[in-house]
Backbone:
């Protein structure tokens, strides 16, 4: 008796629907993912067991290993107002066009008396070659910057404002440089700010470790 031949069917699978889903997921992750904010210079921060995430929009003071200080104004809705306030209070004499150009830069890292000449250049400032904002005992310009920041945020939610104030210092930076940054906050009657650190797990068996495991 002859064997019954089973007709062969095509194994081709229509991948159109799967491709559509894949591209939709890819688009979602691209749009929903938060980009890491740019850094002025790479610094090695000290470690801590704190787990509080830094806000996306923050006022970040960066202290490098060699003692240079930089400022980033992460809240774009207030950045132009802060720069305009510095221009007014310190008499920099910047035009609206110069202020517009300045607001497009990611960080501040030079003395106030060099700002106008820097803006007249067509080259983008290189953080590695900048002297940083002066923060010595005779000329602490960070006081002026924090004053303008405070002026712009005055009248708003001060608790939320304090949560935006971050200091990110290199682990090998000397304390006197950090002290001058603290002095700039103190001179403006700001006594609360956050330190950016490398997060690490709490020691096994410690109170914080037990609390985390019980959550």
Residues:
């Amino acid at each position: 008796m002859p064997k019954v031949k089973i007709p062969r069917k095509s194994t081709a699978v229509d991948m159109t629907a799967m491709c559509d889903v894949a591209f939709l997921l890819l688009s979602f992750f691209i749009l929903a993912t938060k980009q890491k904010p740019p850094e002025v210079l790479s610094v090695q921060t000290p470690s801590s067991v704190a787990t509080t995430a830094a806000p996306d929009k923050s006022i970040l003071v960066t202290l490098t290993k060699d003692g240079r200080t930089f400022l980033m104004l992460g809240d774009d809705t207030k950045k132009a107002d802060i720069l305009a306030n510095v221009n007014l209070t310190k008499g920099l004499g910047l035009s609206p066009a110069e202020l517009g150009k300045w607001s497009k830069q990611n960080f501040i890292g030079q003395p106030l008396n060099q700002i106008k000449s820097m803006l007249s250049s067509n080259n983008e400032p290189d953080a590695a070659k900048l002297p940083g904002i002066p923060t010595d005992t005779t000329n602490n310009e960070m006081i002026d910057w924090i004053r303008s920041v405070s002026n712009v945020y005055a009248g708003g939610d001060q608790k939320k404002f304090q949560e935006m104030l971050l200091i990110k210092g290199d682990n090998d930076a000397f304390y006197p440089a950090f002290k001058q940054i603290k002095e700039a906050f103190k001179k403006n009657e700001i006594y609360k700010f956050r330190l950016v650190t490398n997060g690490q797990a709490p020691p096994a068996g410690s109170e914080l470790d037990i609390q985390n495991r019980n959550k």
